[in-house]
Amino acid sequence: MIRRKKVSMQDIADYLQISKNAVSIALGNKKGVSQEMRERIWLAAKELGYGKYNEQDKKPLNILVLVPERIINYEDNDHFLFYHNLIWTLEKEIRNNGYNAVIARIDGQMEEELQLPNLFHDIDFIGAILFGIVSSSYTAMVAEQGKPFIMLDSYHRGINAPSVTSANIEGAYEAVTYLAGCGHRRIGFIGPTNLTTSHEERWMGYWTAMRDAGLSIDPAMCLTESKGFNANEEEIGSYWERMQTKPTAIFCGNDRAAILLIQLLRKANLRIPEDVSVMGYDDLQMADTLNPGLTTMRVDVHGMCQAAIKLLNKTLDCQDALIRWSVPPELVIRESVKAYASDSSTG
C-alpha cells in the first residue's frame, strides 16, 4: 500500500500561491490575514486533507450547539438580540476554526422530560456546546452521553463540565466599587441568585466589593430570589416598597432588571440618577438608547465565543478536565449613575 504524503502548511501555501506565514496565521486563528483569505485557507486545508481537516481520517467536523428554545423565542426583544448576537458570533467563530456549527433547539418539554434532540444521534459531531441557561438535570443527562461538551454562559456545581462565562464576580466587584467610588454608601442589589450561577457570582462580587469598601449590607435592599429567570415588575415593585430606608444606588445583575427598575422608579416620580443611581450588567442594545443611558458592565461576547472554541478543543484532548474560563467584562459609564455627596451617618 502506498502511504499518502502528509500535507504540510507549505503545500497549502504553494497551492494558493501565498506565503507559509499567512497559512500559519489563518490555521492558528490569529490576526494578520483578511477574513476572505482566512476562509480560502481553511477551504484549501480541507480540500488537500491537512491535519484535522483530512477527510481520509473520516473525522466529523461538526460541532453541535444545543440551544434552549426560550432563548431563541425571547419575548423581551433586547434579551433576544443579546442572545441572537451571542449565538451567531459563536457560529462565526466555529466556522473560522474550520468546523461546521449545527444548531439544535431544546424546547421546554424536551428539557423537562430529558430528551435529546434527534440531531444528537443523527449526525456525527466532535463535540457539543450547551448554550445559555439549561437545567442541571438536563446538563447532567448530556454529560452522561460521553461526548465532549462544554457549557457557554452558565455552569452547574456538581457537574463535571468545562464552561465559559463572563467573569461575573470580578465584573460585579468592579461595578459596585465604581458606585462606592461615586460616593454611594447605601447600595442595593437585584438578581435571582436562586436560579443561576451567574447571578450568584454577581451577588458574591457585590458582597465582596461592599466589604472592601467598608459598607454594610442591608438585607432589605437586596432582592436575591425570583420565580423566573429574571426578576419581574411585581417582584421589583414589592422590593422597592418594603424598604423604609431607600438606597441611593442599586446594582442589578442584568440590564433587564435595571430597565424594569428605572421604569418603576419613574412611575413613583423619582429621577434617575438624581434620586437613585441605577447600574446593570450585560450592555443590552437598549442600554445605550435609554434616557438616561444605562451604566453597565459590557459582556465580551466575541471573547466568550473565542474561548468556547479553544476550550472545546482542549476538552477533546482532556475530557476529564474541569475548566471554568471567565472572560472579563468592560465597565461602560453612562448617565444613570451620578456622584453622591454621602456622609458617615448614612453608612
The averaged pLDDT comes out at 86
Oligomer: single chain
What characterizes the major β-sheet?
A: 6 strands, parallel
Distance between termini? 81 Å
The helix-and-strand class reads: alpha/beta
What's the number of helices? 14
Q: Which outline best applies? A: elongated
In brief, what are we looking at here?
Keywords: DNA-binding, Transcription, Transcription regulation. This protein is of the alpha/beta class and 347 residues long. It has helices at residues 9-16, 20-27, 35-48, 69-72, 77-96, 108-112, 119-122, 136-143, 168-181, 197-212, 233-242, 255-267, 285-289, 301-317; strands spanning 62-68, 100-106, 127-131, 149-152, 163-166, 187-190, 222-223, 249-252, 277-279, 296-298, 324-327, 330-332.
Overview of the structural elements:
The strands form 3 sheets. The chain has a 6-stranded parallel β-sheet, sandwiched between helices. Strands 7-6-8-9 form a 4-stranded parallel β-sheet, with helices on both faces. The chain is of the alpha/beta class and 347 residues long. The radius of gyration is 23 Å and the shape is elongated. It contains 14 helices and 12 strands. It comes from Paenibacillus vulneris. This is LacI family DNA-binding transcriptional regulator. GO terms for molecular function: DNA binding.
